Amino acid sequence: AVVSTQSGHYGRGSTSDSAPDPDTVIRSLINLERGSALQDTRIKQQFSTIPNEVWNVQAVEKITDRKRLETLLKSVDSSYELLSQHRIRLQTEFQERNKVAAMLKEFVMHQKEQLRSVESRLTEYQGKLQKVQAVRSQLQSHLNSLPDLTTVTKLEPLPEPGSLFGAPDD
């Protein structure tokens, strides 16, 4: 069964600003399906075996035999008990479905918030990627404009530092 915390949140490690984790949502949905009073074939089969006299008040008026009436009364009592128990199960299931619906609503809201956040970050990083691509393109263009030093045959040696900064010859 699904259990909510006092803050109305579900799942392990929930805080007041987090939604239920996907595992909790999945477990809750599976538990609802497995324990569904609506899907209980055993109960459906028991309902189908209830005699028509239990459902039909007019048929009761036609019965004159006391023993048959007592048998019918036992059937009515057991049918009443079966219906009462099933009503309680349905009511509990209804409450659980409401809890799971609230959990799903909170989960979807949280997922939408995360989606907006991821979309915002994606837009931000796409902008950064475009800037990096522009810098890369500029660098490639600059690199292509530089002379290819591997094709230069022979360079003249550079002058000695002393001759560059030395005293003038007399």
Can you tag this structure with a few keywords?
mainly alpha; 170 residues; disordered N terminus; rod-shaped
What does it look like?
With 170 residues, the chain is mainly α. It is 68% helix and 0% strand. The chain is built from 6 helices and no strands. Helix 1 (22-34) runs antiparallel to helix 5. The longest helix is centred in the middle third of the chain and has 80 residues, at 66-145. 6% of the residues are buried.
Compute the number of helices.
Answer: 6
Secondary-structure element sequence?
A: HHHHHH
Q: Give me the secondary-structure category.
A: mainly alpha
> What does the average pLDDT come to?
84
Shape: rod-shaped
Q: How large is the share of residues in beta strands?
A: under 5%
Number of strands: 0
Helices, strands, pairings?
Blueprint lengths: L21 H13 L6 H8 L3 H4 L1 H5 L4 H80 L15 H5 L5
Helix pairs in contact: 1-5
Short description:
The protein has helices at 22-34, 41-48, 52-55, 57-61, 66-145, 161-165. The chain is mostly helical.
